From TrEMBL:
<dbReference type="GO" id="GO:0002161">
    <property type="term" value="F:aminoacyl-tRNA deacylase activity"/>
</dbReference>
<dbReference type="InterPro" id="IPR007214">
    <property type="entry name" value="YbaK/aa-tRNA-synth-assoc-dom"/>
</dbReference>
<feature type="domain" description="YbaK/aminoacyl-tRNA synthetase-associated">
    <location>
        <begin position="39"/>
        <end position="155"/>
    </location>
</feature>
<dbReference type="GO" id="GO:0016829">
    <property type="term" value="F:lyase activity"/>
</dbReference>
<keyword id="KW-0648">Protein biosynthesis</keyword>
<protein>
    <recommendedName>
        <fullName>Cys-tRNA(Pro)/Cys-tRNA(Cys) deacylase</fullName>
        <ecNumber>4.2.-.-</ecNumber>
    </recommendedName>
</protein>
<dbReference type="InterPro" id="IPR004369">
    <property type="entry name" value="Prolyl-tRNA_editing_YbaK/EbsC"/>
</dbReference>
<comment type="similarity">
    <text>Belongs to the prolyl-tRNA editing family. YbaK/EbsC subfamily.</text>
</comment>
<keyword id="KW-0456">Lyase</keyword>
<dbReference type="Pfam" id="PF04073">
    <property type="entry name" value="tRNA_edit"/>
</dbReference>
<dbReference type="InterPro" id="IPR036754">
    <property type="entry name" value="YbaK/aa-tRNA-synt-asso_dom_sf"/>
</dbReference>
<dbReference type="GO" id="GO:0006412">
    <property type="term" value="P:translation"/>
</dbReference>
Length: 166
């Protein structure tokens, strides 16, 4: 019988370990599989609404004013609503081509855990995720996720809940 290869922990998993936060790691390829990946998660008993994407935004066209919004994969973000919620004049999606320089992650691997600890950007969560006791976010690598108690993550990254969709 072949041994199961142990995946090397990501920096984000090490941060969770250092803070004593229990989590489960798993692979979830939303970028390449889209709705098929969501369906597979649902088959495994993971509600699609608890799988979060991490969106990096730039406020007021200030090159130093970045923020992060986490919301369910299948939902859209209303930039005007987010700007209003945060008292900003306007917010825009950060340039995907510059994400690695802005956050340290490529598109698809951004995670509130690493961004909070490495960059200190404010982290916001879609208030609709309050109905889930557990949520999943990227583990800092494309296709890798961590699932944990929602409040553990929100507390760890000093997150706030806001309305992100009309």
């Amino acid at each position: 019988m072949a041994k199961k290869k142990k995946l090397k922990k990501t920096n984000e998993e090490r941060i969770l370990d250092q803070h004593g936060i229990a989590y489960q790691e798993y692979t979830f390829d939303w970028i390449n599989r889209g709705n098929d990946a969501l369906a597979e998660a649902e088959e495994q008993g993971v509600p699609a609404g608890s799988l979060l994407k991490t969106i990096v935004l730039n406020a007021n066209q200030d090159p130093k004013d970045y923020l992060v919004v986490c919301l369910p994969l299948q939902n859209e973000i209303d930039l005007k609503k987010v700007a209003h919620e945060l008292g900003k004049k306007q917010v825009h999606l950060a340039d995907n081509k510059k994400l690695i320089n802005i956050t340290g992650y490529v598109h698809g691997a951004n995670t509130p855990i690493g961004i909070s600890f490495k960059k200190g950007f404010p982290i916001y969560f879609d208030e609709r995720i309050k109905e889930y006791s557990e949520i999943s976010v990227s583990a800092g690598k494309i296709g890798r996720s961590v699932r944990m108690k929602r409040e553990d993550l929100v507390s760890l990254v000093r997150g706030r809940y806001i309305a992100v969709e009309r």
